[in-house]
Amino acid sequence: MSSQYQQRQQHQQPSKKPLIGITTSDDKSQIAWWFDWFAVWRHGGQPLRLSPSRPQPARLDGLIIGGGDDIQASLYGGEMQLDVRVDPQRDTLELRLLERFIPQHTPVLGICRGAQLINVHLGGTLDPDIYTTHEGLKRRRTVLPRKTVDIVGDSQLNRILKVSWCRVNSLHHQAVEQAGNGIEIVARDRDGLVQGIESTRHDFLIGVQWHPEWLIFNRPQQRLTRALVRAAAKTQPLS
Fold first, then answer.
1. What pTM value is reported for the model?
2. Which of 191, 82, 188 is nearest to 139 (CA)?
3. Is 99 a catalytic residue?
4. Tell me: the pLDDT tens digits for 109-122?
5. What is the domain count for the chain?
6. Nearest 10 degrees: CA dihedral of 31, 228, 237, 52?
7. Domain range holding 101?
């Protein structure tokens, strides 16, 4: 291989790890942040914590909208729920990030709350409390993979995870209801609740209702973060 060819190849390859922004609240989500950090780091990305009080980067190669508090009902035309925690400043931050980076076709992964926020940003609605709208629904709140999810065949999520069903954790009481513009529902649990969404208009815009970052020994779930980092690497400007 000639030295000129090697120099040209080096020039065409990104010289740095892809920068992956991960949203959190200012004073909560510390443990979740470390799990997200590890998931991105182990697959070759450079994690960057984003929260309302932190400076915003000039660029990102990829974006994770992380889990956390409920989304304000006013954002999707729902009724205000009592005894729920909301984080309006974080809502504002994440909606601005989506408004900025989705048009740039930056790869985006929404986790739990993040999947819901992507759907709301694109005009969809949420079920504000699955336990009041679905009578007899078994209450599950665990970081362990105790819920079975079926994935639509040949969806992007199916191709990434390489499985048609999987066992996942469950930490939510809200869920996607009506899909937003350009959003397809690609996974549901055995109770019929939405567990996975993806965009038909973007190369990588995926939301999952579970927390793959907690499932550190689960190969299909780790493929999801790896796919995000790889997609982000492709969007990096040439050095």
1. 0.91
2. 191
3. no
4. 999 999 999 999 99
5. 1
6. -30
7. 3-235
